[in-house]
Amino acid sequence: MHVRPRVTLLTEADVRQIHEASLEILERTGVLYDCKEALDILAAHGQKVDYNSGVAWIKSDLVERCIKSAPRHFVLASRDGRNDAVIDGTQMHHMTDGQASFTIDEKTAERRPSTLHDLCLSTLLADALTPIKIMWSTVFPTDASTDYRALFEMATAFMWSTKHFQMVGGVQDPEDVPYLLDMLDTVYGDRRKQRDRPYFSMVTCPVSPLKHDTAMTEACIALAREWVPIVFWPMPLQGATAPITMAGTLLQTNVEFLSGLVLYQCVQPGLPMIYPAGPETLDMKTSLASTASPEGMMLNLAFAQMTDFYQVPYMAGGICSDAKVPGIQAGYENMGTGMSAALSGCDLLVGIGILEDGNTLSFPQMVIDEEMCNVLTFLRNGMDVSRESMLVDEIHRVGHSPNHHLAEPATMAYLKSPQAFWPTISFRGTYGDWKRRGKDEVALARDRMKLLLDKHDPLSPPPEVQKALRRLLAKRTGFAENDKRIERVFRHPWKDQD
């Protein structure tokens, strides 16, 4: 029998109480859908709406129907088929973190605004990191056009990775949607034929408390109609845009997620949707948000139980740190947040390479986090418990000390199998060997990063597809096809640096 570790926090009665309180709030207080199209959709499904205030009151029977229509099993597909993320409740898939406004420069070691080159290079590096299955845009490229950020991010993802692309920053302008879909068709062919293998999904966030943004909602309604999976991510701030208690933050997050689930299941019944949880804690001493608080670690466990109750996939925030640079704080916070997420039973684990509450990218940290991903996956996968795996006959045969198991065939077979764990950054040698090595974990990660980038050859789209992507970028932005911003997307970020 294969057994996997799982930690729970809530009782069945607790889960039911949170659900019933959520239904109460949806029906009595309602949610502000600041989008006429969303109100029209809800009204067409028999819900009370107020077009003047933008509020809709959602009845419990509609909530229950929409919960049942959302699928539990689906695939977030990769272009080459080798990195598909099968979402079935038995596996945990790792993802990059995203949208960092700053990057620690590898040449100067200074923190500076993130650039389009950082986005391209981090996408290439993430494509080379084996644990990662799903790509977020790691940084916000401040030197690209802010107005057309979504198109630059999608083109970059398609150029430098074959892995599933999930747009984390959302779409700020609904008029971008046709261009995004054209890009998708350009790279993958007719998206309508790929309904069961979506290569692109979208993250969208409500505005806590209890509000949906106008432009992002319009864009996501259009994408939902095209069967683009939606990750509806409430991100309330505990003590500010959510109640100060963990239970209150849990409840409000749940209400906000259900409000999104209802809307997009009404748009497209059966649409794949993911329940993510990313509430942060307001540090009342500094007035800054903390992404690595113990409150957040505990809430990972509770949210996982709510997703079990609703039978929807769970995306947990983990490998998160408030540290400003790679080091001791980043180590214990990343492992703490990652461990709670892994033990919650999550389907997807977000958070590789980003420090300072999601604000700063570190390239060596991406490689250090790869090691953490491998540890967490090893733990999450559990172990087989059977007479064969317990090696009962071997224990009989070896008998008593001073005999040992080192020379047994099963020992060598295990060490050569995928079951064995071998670190790439952590050092297990003697103190003398460590001293002679003369490098800490960050330096070793930097060496490994360079080795990976030197060796990795991504499967970029064919030249004619790249030309089509250029044309779409130029058409939407009004830039020339040889504009340096467009050119940057298509230049190799490692072999062809400035």
How would you sum up this structure in a few lines?
By secondary structure, the protein is an alpha/beta fold.
Main sheet strand line-up: 7-10-11-12-14-16-19-20
**What is the percent of helical residues?**
40-55%
The shape is globular
- Gyration radius, rounded: 24 Å
Q: Got a strand count? A: 23
What is the overall pLDDT average? 95
Number of helices: 17
Residue share in β-strands:
5-15%
Uncertain runs are none
What separation lies between the terminal Cα atoms? 55 Å
Largest β sheet strand count, sense and barrel closure: 8 strands, parallel, barrel
Structural class: alpha/beta
Describe the structure.
By secondary structure, the protein is an alpha/beta fold. The protein is 44% helix and 14% strand. It has 17 helices and 23 strands. It has an eight-stranded parallel barrel with strand order 7-10-11-12-14-16-19-20, surrounded by seven helices. Helix 10 packs parallel to helix 11 and helix 11 packs across helix 15. The protein starts with a strand and ends in an 8-residue tail after the last helix. The model has no long low-confidence stretch (mean pLDDT 95).
Describe the protein's topology.
Blueprint: E1 2-3, H1 12-28, E2 31-33, H2 36-44, E3 48-50, E4 55-57, H3 60-69, E5 74-76, E6 85-87, E7 93-95, E8 102-104, E9 111-113, H4 116-128, E10 132-135, H5 149-160, E11 164-167, H6 177-188, E12 200-204, E13 211-212, H7 214-225, E14 230-232, E15 237-238, H8 246-267, E16 273-277, E17 280-283, E18 288-290, H9 294-310, E19 314-317, H10 328-344, E20 348-350, E21 354-355, E22 360-361, H11 363-381, E23 383-384, H12 392-398, H13 409-416, H14 431-437, H15 441-455, H16 463-477, H17 484-490
Parallel strand pairs: 2-13, 7-10, 7-20, 8-22, 10-11, 11-12, 12-14, 14-16, 15-17, 16-19, 19-20
Antiparallel strand pairs: 1-23, 2-4, 3-4, 5-6, 8-9, 17-18, 21-22
Helix pairs in contact: 1-8, 3-8, 4-5, 5-6, 5-16, 6-16, 9-10, 10-11, 11-15
